[in-house]
Amino acid sequence: MSHSRMHWEACYLALALMTSAMASAGAAPTSGPTDSGTSSAAIPVTEEQAEMLGREIARTLSAGDATFFSRCTDNAAMSGAGYAGLAGLPDWMQNRKEPDTDLSFQWLGLQCKLLRVGNDDGRPVPILRISKCGGIGFDNYNRVDYFELQLASRPDGTVRVVDVYKMSSGELTSETIHRGALETVASNPRLIGYARQLGGKDKDYVLHYSEIRALYTYAITCSDEGTAAYAESTYGKLPETLSGHRIIMLLHVFTSTGLGRAPFKKALLDFRRVYPDDIGEATRIINSFVILSQYDEALAEIDRLDAHIGGDPMLDVERGYVAYHAEKPDEEKKFYRRAVEREPTLRPAWYGLVWRSLDEKQYDQTVALLNESGRRAGLRWDRVSTSFLFAAFWKTPQYADWVKTHPQSSAPETQSNAGNWPNWGN
User: In the chain, how many H helices and how many E strands?
Assistant: First the structure.
């Protein structure tokens, strides 16, 4: 496994845990009532309403439009829940313009699909899959996450999203907002007096935020043994109230990867002892097992996640990713093919199949896959002629024949775009 691959996996985890909180840190509750009304939760949301809303959110986000998601999201309710217990914030912080929920913009340009409508204590919960599909080849890794939308009705019957559970972080958006507010307090010297008024975990989080932020940084380079040792030392200095914090424990699990299999296993077992029912960590722990070349364990994590989700073809792409690093190309292709048979429009699976054909120099197969994916998934492959990944293909008679029937692609004059990852699905 390449060092750059491990670096990017580590970066992704650290950023996935940091960005939501940092983007939401300025979102304070509005002073007036929310537009959902105080009695909104009393009107039950039907499964049909939940499905219709989930499908439209998925459709518009996949099209690169966050307007609908923003319009049907009750940001004030989410911020109000996030700032619960943080009374007395200074006016300059509370009066900041409340941003739209960062979820809608964080995932713009990615594929979003309603998998199903789940059930949470009798309430319908749309479960959305968010997948990264910006390129071909696993150095531009494909990742997947899942959102569970918590819904409520207005008095007029309009359904709103009042909170969102993001599986990879294991938090509701309101909890992420709360954590982001604490990080704002910790990062601003003007708020040191307010920090002393906090109690319990919140106060400890603020007082030890420099160590917590260091763990985020260490997670980015956790494959380095020396960095992992610093992370282990930093984690050991945290008070008990924080060493059991879900996000911090998850960072510890990931940073321990650089120390080897035994320390990683211990950190993971410690995490699962405190959070035995947690499933979100599986979306990230898969990468740690791959880094440690424990491919069977990585596949077992995918199976565990798949059972919880209720079946998702995208997880066959994840299995293909594991097979890629295990250097089992036949299994890799099997997983991608199974994914596209289950969901023909699943772009990352088509990218994996095409990438494998290019890597194996099976150019007849490359052409067949380009045509099949165009027919079944609507992929146009506009930039075959401008990506360095197809450089060897350009020199073949198969390419010369293919490009004649695809006028949107023409022989490249230069390789000036070689460093740019294209959006293959355009």
Answer: 22, 5
What is the rounded CA–CA span in Å between residue 247 and residue 363?
45
**DSSP symbols for 309-332:** HT--THHHHHHHHHHHHTT-HHHH
The span from the CA of 295 to the CA of 317, in Å, is: 14
Per-domain residue ranges for the chain? 25-91+103-189, 293-404
| Rounded Cα distance, 283 and 319, in Å | 12
- Specify the DSSP class assigned to residue 73: B
Q: Which residues of the chain have pLDDT under 70?
A: 1-42, 88-109, 133-142, 221-224, 407-426
- The two tokens of residue 286 are 């898969």
| The model's pTM | 0.79
- Supply angle C-alpha 24, 25, 31, rounded to 5: 85
The H-or-E segment that residue 171 falls in is strand 171-172
CATH of domain 293-404: 1.25.40.10
- Measured between alpha carbons, how far is 279 from 298 in angstroms, rounded to an integer? 14
